Amino acid sequence: MSSDKLSNKGAKSSLALRADRQKKTAITTVRKKPLTTYKVPPLTLRLSLTDKQNVQDWVEELQEDTNRKVSAAKLFRALTAMKDEIDNSKLLKIINDMQ
Length: 99
Known about the structure:
Largest sheet: none
Order of helices and strands: HHHHH
Oligomer: single chain
Shape: elongated
Number of strands: 0
């Protein structure tokens, strides 16, 4: 059976699909950043296992003192809400001392 007969029956060869892909002229080297439903890029935090455990321990400590569900996301939102109360020079010193 020739490829024309197969195409007429709705089948395409993988070679034809590859040829279609090669016709593209645009080269994409950087993926477009995905956006959340709020139209902002998602926040990705790369933490060591020790840091993750420290955050989780802090969340659990906070959870003991409230009836609301506490999560790492709520912890970061709360820290963001009180950013004006945080001593930036002290914070930057801690950041600069990190490895």
